[in-house]
Amino acid sequence: MAEAGEIIVNMAELDRYVVSCMMASGATEDSARVLSDLLVTADYRGHYTHGLCRIDVYTSDVKCGVTCGGGKDPTVVKETVATALIDGNNLLGPVVGKFAMDVAIQKAKTAGVGIVTVRGSNHYGIAGWYSLRATKQGLLGMSMTNSDKVMIPTRSKTRSLGTNPLSMTAPGKDGDSFELDMACTTVAWGKVEIKKMKGETLPTGWALDKGGKETCDTSAVAGLLPLGGLEQNSGYKGYGLAMMVEILTSVLSGAEMCSFVRKWKTYEKPANLGHCFLAIDPGAFAEGFTDRMQNLMDHNRNLEPVEGEEEVLVAGDPERQHMALCDKLGGIPYHPNQIEFLDDIAKSLGVDPLEHVTKSC
């Protein structure tokens, strides 16, 4: 997360920047706007690892022709009243994911549940962006993807599964909601990149070098530890969770799997990533779901915090706090090195750099 009070950029300006960069790279305006919504939302929610810091990956993929920048839609290959298999036709991941999540939502409204698997897609950003599409319509939402950033599983120094993020969101009352968005590794790969961008060392428990040994040196990182860390700290549970996501995304859909997925910033073949989306109508089950969901969240928030902490949070609260900060600042705060990175990309594409202000707060 960037430090507040450094460089503040208005969200409309961020949208202008992303759309301009993507169109300069060869994407259609419609596809560029979908991607912009996801990237700006990620930074607004405090998920800087999946926001504008990823713009170089998307622009390069479209420029090199390894990802389709638009002009066509995903294809429904097979479906039942409650399920669908979708081919993303190698479009930008957020374009594919938005289409697929909306199919799952419509099926849930008809059948009580919608389950959609996807193949032929690309990196799709924060998983929560999709789940929240369902929860904004009163549904439970789930989203997951296999990924092209590998981790090193417990007892192995070879590349295997990706960070394999997943999300689940559920509606409470008066706009409140549970909003889980997490990777199956200790941290997302982007957190290592942001540490490197800021010239900082890594905390212990994040990463491993090419020999499978733990490292705090950003230049030596070859893989990420599974959730839980090393084996003695139950890292095998994170490894198993990542396998579960892999089954529901790549194995079920016929997409490329684990370390066979094309790695970022290589352009020899399409990524063929797999996703899985679920939407569930709570009305198809016991009455009073939102009341019980709100009681569950409030019960945990009202627990006595440990010494040194002011409050107990539930998933989604840190994001709401960051969004409130952005609203107060009048934009999203960034580290100067992040802005320099984005300005360099704009220059390389012949796009106007970001307009921003410096504030202290």
Model description:
The protein has 361 residues and is an alpha+beta fold. It has two domains: 1-71 and 331-361, Hypothetical Oxidoreductase Yiak, Chain: A, domain 1; 74-186 and 232-329, 2-Layer Sandwich (Ribosomal Protein S8, Chain: A, domain 1). 37% of the residues lie in helices and 16% in strands. The protein contains ten helices and 13 strands. The chain has helices at 11-25, 29-44, 55-63, 93-111, 128-135, 189-197, 235-253, 289-301, 317-329, 336-349; strands spanning 7-9, 75-79, 83-87, 113-121, 140-145, 166-171, 177-182, 207-208, 214-215, 223-224, 273-280, 332-334, 357-358. A seven-stranded mixed β-sheet has the order 2-3-4-11-5-6-7. A three-stranded antiparallel β-sheet has the order 12-1-13. A three-stranded antiparallel β-sheet has the order 9-8-10, with no helix packed on it. A hairpin with a 5-residue loop joins strand 8 (207-208) and strand 9. The two termini are 16 Å apart. The model has no long low-confidence stretch (mean pLDDT 93).
Task: Please describe the topology of this protein.
Blueprint: E1 7-9, H1 11-25, H2 29-44, H3 55-63, E2 75-79, E3 83-87, H4 93-111, E4 113-121, H5 128-135, E5 140-145, E6 166-171, E7 177-182, H6 189-197, E8 207-208, E9 214-215, E10 223-224, H7 235-253, E11 273-280, H8 289-301, H9 317-329, E12 332-334, H10 336-349, E13 357-358
Parallel strand pairs: 3-4
Antiparallel strand pairs: 1-12, 1-13, 2-3, 4-11, 5-6, 5-11, 6-7, 8-9, 8-10
Helix pairs in contact: 1-2, 1-3, 2-4, 4-5
